[in-house]
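Ops channel
N.P.: pipeline sanity check, posting one input/output pair.
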């Protein structure tokens, strides 16, 4: 077949390709290589462009297996062209879509061997290493990309994120400052510096940098997320919730992440308490113990009572069931009649509740602890108690390791939550 007819065929085929999205078959390409057509690199380059376009079409239609075939063909047809480097890049991305990370890595390694000055290929390979948790390898490749092109803001940013993940904060800060030098109008450098400051525990600085990032890009959802994290870390939950509102208004998928983090950052509180087996907290001073249960009418008898105490969030079960995290005591608050027995001296007839519960169970579905404690009748069957001024205090942690909110870590009948 002469070059003229082959070229005419390619032209006709190209029109058909973009009208019908059909592919150039391997048989056709093999035939072209065996013909005199192969003597014209310009024609091969032209065909490579066509096949690359075909592969991109397949990629966009999510037919990644067929896309890989086309990208391989395009790279083979014109191995010295810039299009070949693009074909390798697309091929690596297609393998990632197919979840064939090993093949993606091999593809980029081969591409780097063939095109050792293309810094974008280095970044793409390092990105995969980061996704795989291979941080040391990622850092090495990102560093090579930066050495090839120190004015590529994307490479500098990616290397900064790699250092940040490895907790090399000084190195990360240096990279993000480079991003700002290269592209001062870009928000990503300020975002990265905000991340570094938050990781270092400098929350005011983190808030300042993240606010700058948002000023430069009002649609930077990750910056709102990170700023919400910083406010929550600082204990300013109102401002954290303001960032949550922004994300919700943007219908952002990150809203759920921030909402969960705010919940985790919020200190737990006791929200309610109730006894279902006779410990009537409305009864005040000098209540006869026998009034709590008929089982306590006889001298020397004891009964196990319980108090169901609800919490505002998921609690750490091991902490809840540890009796030494609880304290049962007589109220000593002098305001609003808060002293046990209204401050009157207690007699030897006054019943005593041990400071630590007998045992505790926890219902994770309702975030409720059931605190069980003994009350005993004396030998003369005339013991008294002040249920209204018995205080139940919890000093443990929630499921995220947060200590109790001191304003709501105890319960008593006379004051409810305190």
């Amino acid at each position: 077949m002469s070059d003229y007819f082959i070229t005419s065929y390619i032209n006709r085929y190209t029109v058909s390709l973009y009208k019908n999205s059909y592919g150039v078959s391997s048989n056709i390409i093999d035939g072209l290589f065996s013909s005199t057509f192969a003597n014209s690199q310009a024609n091969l380059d032209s065909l490579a462009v066509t096949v690359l376009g075909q592969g991109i079409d397949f990629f966009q239609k999510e037919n990644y297996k067929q896309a890989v075939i086309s990208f391989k063909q395009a790279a083979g047809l014109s191995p010295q062209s810039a299009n070949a480097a693009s074909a390798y890049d697309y091929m690596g991305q297609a393998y990632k879509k197919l979840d064939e990370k090993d093949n993606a890595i091999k593809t980029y390694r081969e591409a780097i061997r063939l095109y050792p000055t293309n810094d974008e290929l280095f970044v793409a390979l390092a990105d995969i290493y980061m996704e795989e948790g291979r941080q040391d390898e990622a850092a090495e490749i990102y560093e090579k990309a930066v050495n090839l092109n120190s004015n590529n803001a994307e490479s500098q940013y990616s290397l900064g994120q790699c250092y940040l993940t490895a907790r090399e904060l000084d190195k990360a800060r240096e990279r993000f400052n480079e991003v700002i030098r290269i592209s001062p109008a870009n928000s990503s450098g300020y975002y990265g510096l905000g991340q570094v400051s938050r990781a270092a525990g400098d929350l005011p600085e983190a808030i300042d940098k993240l606010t700058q990032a948002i000023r430069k890009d009002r649609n930077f959802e990750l910056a709102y997320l990170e700023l919400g994290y910083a406010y929550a870390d600082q204990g300013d939950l109102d401002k954290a919730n303001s960032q949550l509102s922004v994300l919700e208004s943007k219908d952002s998928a990150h809203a759920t992440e921030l909402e969960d983090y705010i919940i985790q950052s919020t200190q737990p509180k006791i929200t309610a308490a109730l006894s279902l087996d006779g410990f009537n907290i409305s009864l005040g001073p000098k209540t006869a113990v026998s009034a709590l249960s008929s089982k306590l009418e006889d001298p020397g008898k004891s009964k196990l009572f319980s108090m169901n105490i609800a919490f505002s969030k998921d609690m750490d079960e091991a902490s809840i069931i540890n009796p030494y995290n609880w304290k049962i005591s007589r109220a000593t608050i002098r305001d609003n009649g808060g002293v046990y027995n209204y401050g009157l001296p207690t007699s030897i007839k006054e019943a005593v509740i041990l400071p630590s519960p007998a045992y505790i169970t926890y219902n994770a579905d309702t975030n409720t602890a059931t605190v069980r404690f003994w009350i005993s009748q004396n030998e003369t069957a005339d013991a008294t108690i002040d249920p209204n001024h018995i205080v139940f205090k919890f000093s443990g942690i929630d499921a995220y390791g947060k200590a109790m909110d001191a304003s709501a870590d105890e319960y008593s009948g006379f004051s409810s939550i305190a």
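N.P.: looks fine end to end. The beta strands are 270-274, 287-288, 302-311, 326-330, 359-363, 368-376, 384-385, 390-394, 410-412, 416-417.
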